[in-house]
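Moderator note: this is an archived Q&A kept for reference. The question asked for a predicted structure of one protein chain; the sequence and the answer are reproduced below.
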Amino acid sequence: MLPCITENIESKRIFDLVVSQITKLGVMKEQDGISVSMLANELALGEHAAHMAVKSGGDVIEGKGGIPMMNPWARARRESRDAAWRIITHFGLTASSRVALQGQKASGDSKEDTIKNLFKFGS
């Protein structure tokens, strides 16, 4: 059973969709549950922000004194999309980032060598 830590119903819907797609690819691991939950929360926030941006006048709205300004909801949508992309790549949820993470593990030292290297001081 995957851990699912979602903030609302929309996050849960996105979580279930993402899990089903990754599972079909055969690359879903139990430890991916938390990262997929984080991703689902960001995507749900982005969807809400996109809806609110449209509802409140679009990406550019009239600010104080009639000066055009970026809609704060559009900014929230962009920040959410950027956060989602960081989550996707950081946790290896794309094919290329998963290969990169596996390559780092394969080329790394054993745990014992890594611990020994931590205590080498200029030798």
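Archived answer notes: The chain has one domain: 9-118.
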